[in-house]
Design a protein that fits this description.
There is one protein chain. This protein has 262 residues and is an alpha/beta fold. The protein has helices at 12-21, 36-48, 63-76, 100-128, 149-168, 205-208, 213-225, 236-247, 249-257, and strands at residues 2-7, 27-33, 52-57, 82-85, 131-136, 174-181, 230-233. The radius of gyration is 18 Å and the shape is globular. The model has no long low-confidence stretch (mean pLDDT 96).
Length: 262
Amino acid sequence: MKTIFITGASSGIGRALALVWSKQKNITLILAARNIPTLEKVSEQCRANGSQSFVVGMDLANRDSIHAVVKEIELRFPQIDIVVHNGGISQRSTVKDTSLEVFRRLMEVNFFGAVTLTQLLLPRMLSKKSGHIVVVSSVMGKLGFPLRSGYAASKHALHGFFDSLRAEVSGEGIRVTLVCPGYVKTNISMDALKADGSKHHQMDEATANGMDPADFAQKMIAAVDAGKEEVSIGGAREMLGIYLKRFFPKILSRMVSRSRVN
């Protein structure tokens, strides 16, 4: 039996991962998010697919909430085989207009939420010399883009932290995988924060035309099963951006500076 803990599981990539994993044999899912009613519906679908599924309400911006959830699941489950840090929020605002509170919230949810949860789960993983930490980053974790400064910063921070963690736990039986999605058709742009902290409430064209979440989930789970340290999954445009950032950064800089994002 494999126990998988997924944050941000009520919609988008998290929901898709839960549904794909639930079709595998001997899977127990722990699904976490703030929206409990929606999360319960996902859990019901997972159980209908043949897996055990449990729901926990958790706010990644609230450390007490994270502590309470970890205490609860460690009492109920002897081991967490895979934790997927998927929960997060995006941004649609310029640096000059964005309030410091918005930048802090992006870091609190996207970065410190994952750090807090990892620190709480890590001791048991180390004691059992077993566990797989999977981090849903972004192509923005490898390059910058207009109106995404705080979001990109939070994703870049994940790479530095979890690459370092991987080096520290090398030889301890614990794996760390960073996953960098390109455009996936989710509500990420709808829920993105504007300069004043209110929601964007608009679907970006690139996101609307992005990869189907179920297809993305299949590719991501294959990468996790293969034990990859890092994988980028997306369309040709996003993958080109990563290639240009590495080998031709000035060309990418010119392309990005001309970008217009709604």
